Amino acid sequence: MSSDPTLSCDVLVCGGGVAGTMAAVAAARHGAKVILVERYGFLGGNATAGAVGQFNSWQTAAGRRIIAGLADEVVDRLRTYGAAGQHEVFVMSNGHRMDRVPYAPEVLKLVLDDMVVDAGVQVLFHANLLGVECRERKVTTVQVLTKSGVLSILPRILIDASGDIDALNRAGVRLLSLDDGETLQPATMMFRFGPMDFVRFGAIPKVHLAALARRGFEQGDLARAALHASPDPFSQDGWFNISRLGIDATDSMSLSRAEIEGRKQAWQAAAYLRAAVPGCENGRLQAFATQVGVRETRRVEGDHVLTVDELLQSRPFGDAIAAGAYPIDIHPSAGGGLVYKTFDADHAYQIPYRSLIPADLDNALAVGRGISATHEALAAIRVMTISMAVGQAGGTAAAMASQETEGMLRLVPIGKLQAALQADGACLGA
Ligand SMILES: Cc1cc2nc3c(=O)[nH]c(=O)nc-3n(C[C@H](O)[C@H](O)[C@H](O)COP(=O)(O)OP(=O)(O)OC[C@H]3O[C@@H](n4cnc5c(N)ncnc54)[C@H](O)[C@@H]3O)c2cc1C
Prior knowledge:
- This protein is of the alpha+beta class.
- The protein has 2 domains: 6-87 and 106-182 and 297-423, FAD/NAD(P)-binding domain; 191-288, no CATH class.
- 30% of the residues lie in helices and 21% in strands.
- The protein has helices at residues 18-29, 70-80, 105-119, 166-171, 198-203, 206-218, 252-276, 308-312, 375-381, 384-404, 414-423, and strands spanning 6-14, 34-37, 54-56, 88-91, 97-102, 122-124, 128-135, 138-146, 149-160, 191-194, 229-231, 238-240, 284-288, 320-324, 328-330, 339-341, 349-352, 364-366.
- Helix 1 links the parallel strand 1 (6-14) and strand 2 (34-37).
- Helix 1 (18-29) packs parallel to helix 3 (105-119) and helix 1 (18-29) packs parallel to helix 10 (384-404).
- Flavin-adenine dinucleotide binds next to helix 1, strand 3, strand 7 and helix 10.
- Flavin-adenine dinucleotide (FAD) is lined by residues 14-20, 37-40, 45-47, 50, 52, 54-56, 128-129, 161-164, 166, 188, 190, 241, 293-295, 368-369, 382-385, 387.
């Protein structure tokens, strides 16, 4: 009987969302041989398949820059394709001010392709994680199911960037659970609607917009009392984030039902937009996201569990590898509302390296929305800007570990890691 084809690498990144792609690029640029495994035929995860459409929170409310590094490069590269809007401060449909860079999700696919190709990352598309084998606190083999059958990959280091922590879950590591009264944040089927008259839509007074959203929710046309859209830089359309699906997206039955329900909610919301919302009269639903966008599923238990108090108190960490300024933004799984806790004007927080290291393994990291943080803390650090910053840090650390510490991630010299990140333009300070 023939055995599975085998590949080996320094760093295997499982999942090509924004966090995983930045991790792969950073690791490759720092000299590691990197394989990136992605279940779809393109990169980006929520940013492309989920069609989120805007990178939020580059700075504090007072305007101090908190996110830079590879995230900046993504935007610069989008701009060369004409596919990113200006960095702007806007008022969210909940009345809070926020900053963003809108982008065209389709073109982000090209940009991420360019970045991995330029960095020399070996990308395996249409590859689903199948199994993970460990020995003595180390991941030894990862199996992926591809069009050509099962491939076995022998990595020195595994970075789980699957969002759902699929790889570390298969490795059997401890995960964090929800506390009493907490539920997973809901998923959302994003949809593109247009053409829109953004001048008229943008001129709707916020109280009027909130009343329109509330009416749509109360009469059952909107699943969420919000009319939240980001402009698509390539068209007169907007990407709407107004459906709500209270599911556990790691449960395949409920995920499947959510795709169907999500499209139904989006269709109904589009009809409401056309009938009731100024600037939307001539629009129609142009596209659904490839899949429902998933805000929260599994979180790994790491050497440090980042808490909401640490974010609120801006706790300094000696092993800080990224920073953020996005507020606590919890979408309840049911009802039309939002729990949104803002910070003081110049407030920011740090993310420690230890929150990337699974407590049970020596040669694995998590990056992106599955890192070691409480449900409330994740509600802040899950946004794409911070996910990219954490991804860059994880990839840089993994390259260092593969070259200097025989893959032992806890032995990476923190000062050297921080210096490398800063030299690469990243911002670590709160
Ligand atoms: C509806 C919605 C609206 C949002 N709005 C904003 C916003 O306005 N601004 C903002 O900045 N952030 C926003 N966010 C948050 C942000 O989009 C995500 O938290 C962020 O994109 C997470 O990135 P990630 O790379 O960690 O994970 P993901 O984007 O989930 O990427 C995971 C990747 O792994 C792949 N993968 C998963 N499992 C496997 C497997 N078993 N085998 C192989 N590949 C696998 C996936 O296909 C995907 O490419 C929003 C999120 C949602 C869902």
